[in-house]
Amino acid sequence: MNTERLDGKVFVITGGSSGMGAALAKDFCNRGAKAAIFDLDEVKGTEVVEEIRASGGSAEFFPCDVTSKKQIHERTNEVEEKLGLITSWINSAGVSQMKPFLESEEEFWDLTLNVNLKATFLCCQVAVEKMLENGGGEILNMASLSGKKASSWQTVYCASKFGVMGLTQSIAKEFADKGIRINSLCPGIVHTEMWEKLKYDYAKKRDIEPDEVMDYFKKNIPMHRLVEIKDVINAAIFLLTDNSSYLTGQSINLAGGEWMD
Ligand SMILES: NC(=O)c1ccc[n+]([C@@H]2O[C@H](COP(=O)([O-])OP(=O)(O)OC[C@H]3O[C@@H](n4cnc5c(N)ncnc54)[C@H](O)[C@@H]3O)[C@@H](O)[C@H]2O)c1
């Protein structure tokens, strides 16, 4: 079991109302960190915060559309008033749908690129500004194996996540000597709310039943299992602490042997 403590750290976690963002917020607060959740989903975000507080942790929910620069700036200032100086930032807000390329409308492109790429750009900008004032920090972008590996019916999602890789690497170079490290995680399949929705379209793509989708993946992953939340937590702790003090601009594949580049 990972016994790393995160006392003194103040995290902003975008997309923290659900899935990996929520799991990271809960786990990190148990380790002594404070978490600020930025998400559109106020109901689920408030539940996450209540759960953290019930087990003695410190967290706040901030309603925020991360595609809005104005909202991100306003919420970020409120975080520093309520929780203290931001030391760390996780960009986990994301959207995904599976569509054949020729059925991928312009609106679908705009939404996906806005949430997955533009919002990551906007949030990284605010995070870097704060971290320069605060003497450094660490940023983690939730990319995906789809940031490195093509998939049919995922053209738009892949384009957004390949973009996150370039963004992460370029910011890393520019601020490497300023005490700011930025890395990305590239998980394969994590069975969150996102895949509960995606499995119906994936089933169509493979001509299988939705309930067969997760087993289909397991069969084809060399370790024959999906990414577990504990895998995400352990990798995130590594990338967001001094354990990885010489790593910046890197992307860690959580792939069970499926992808190695
Ligand atoms: N689940 C997977 O298999 C998987 C694999 C690789 C990468 N990822 C990526 O990891 C991240 C988290 O995925 P997840 O599975 O936890 O997803 P999820 O759907 O469970 O959670 C995503 C969260 O983002 C929030 N969000 C969406 N648009 C937003 C906006 N404009 N402003 C603020 N919040 C917004 C949603 O409300 C939701 O709470 C995403 O970026 C996703 O692309 C997921």
Automatic annotation (TrEMBL):
<dbReference type="GO" id="GO:0016616">
    <property type="term" value="F:oxidoreductase activity, acting on the CH-OH group of donors, NAD or NADP as acceptor"/>
</dbReference>
<keyword id="KW-0560">Oxidoreductase</keyword>
<comment type="similarity">
    <text>Belongs to the short-chain dehydrogenases/reductases (SDR) family.</text>
</comment>
<dbReference type="InterPro" id="IPR002347">
    <property type="entry name" value="SDR_fam"/>
</dbReference>
<dbReference type="InterPro" id="IPR020904">
    <property type="entry name" value="Sc_DH/Rdtase_CS"/>
</dbReference>
<dbReference type="GO" id="GO:0008206">
    <property type="term" value="P:bile acid metabolic process"/>
</dbReference>
<dbReference type="InterPro" id="IPR036291">
    <property type="entry name" value="NAD(P)-bd_dom_sf"/>
</dbReference>
<dbReference type="Pfam" id="PF13561">
    <property type="entry name" value="adh_short_C2"/>
</dbReference>
<protein>
    <submittedName>
        <fullName>SDR family oxidoreductase</fullName>
    </submittedName>
</protein>
